[in-house]
Amino acid sequence: MTRTILVAAAAAALLAGCAGSRERKGYILDQELASAIQVGVDNKDSVSRTLGRPTFTGQFNENEWYYVARNTATLAFRLPRVTDQTVLRIRFDQAGNVAGIDRTGKELVASIDPYGRQTPTLGRRKSFFEDVFGGIGIAGAGVPGAGNAPAQ
Description:
Elements: H1 2-16, E1 21-26, H2 31-36, H3 44-51, E2 56-57, E3 64-74, E4 81-92, E5 98-104, H4 128-133
Antiparallel strand pairs: 1-3, 2-3, 3-4, 4-5
């Protein structure tokens, strides 16, 4: 009887590791509040009061605010996949008034696949021993004051 309970508990623990999970990341976008923002009417202060601080501002233009909301799902030990994403971009003119509002979804999510877990580099390939012992004897070579500088 005890053995059956132990086997059942072990099986339950193993199956619990295979369960999926869902996560919500970033800004929680309220559709009514987002649709209340109007071009030419609102400014940075009113947008900040209505939607709160942006997720991030534009890297090259601080007059662009981004609100990013993303939902992901993970099954067992797989990498998370994006199930839903909304990016709300609000552009301001030089006076700080709303000049445009753009909304995109998960169609812009890029899947980046690394190349063989290595970064290809240009140049000569070194063996293990060349990497380990290749620097012996060249420390300070050509550096003034390292003992090999010409006498004055």
